[in-house]
Amino acid sequence: MATPKYTDVLAQIKKAIANPKDTKLVSALDNTLATMSHSDIFQLRDAASQDSAAQNIIAPYEHRAFAREWASKDPLTAAASLVAAIPAYTAAKAVGLQGGRSSASLPELTQGFTGLGEGLMTAISNALNPAATK
Prior knowledge:
mainly alpha
């Protein structure tokens, strides 16, 4: 059962699954998921554990949040690691070497790299303006 915190997001996901051509709805969902923390998205995935369609929608954003948060905190290690790990993980899922709650997908790959870019931009911004991070 979803916690109240995630009930609205799960309802939005179900609407997007039922109406994939509703660009306003899909865009709103994208905006919501794209800004959630990795912890929140991980919990959202747990709340939707029995819904494979929802897992396939949420998963790319979990990859994005993970990459964004790691790269913002440890940009050199994250960049060096994720440039190879993002496509390797997706490829391993695609050929059955790695299991997961969702299918391998192009959005999983692109959202991972988007998150890496966002995290690196945050790290650069913080380095250039350290007073803003306090």
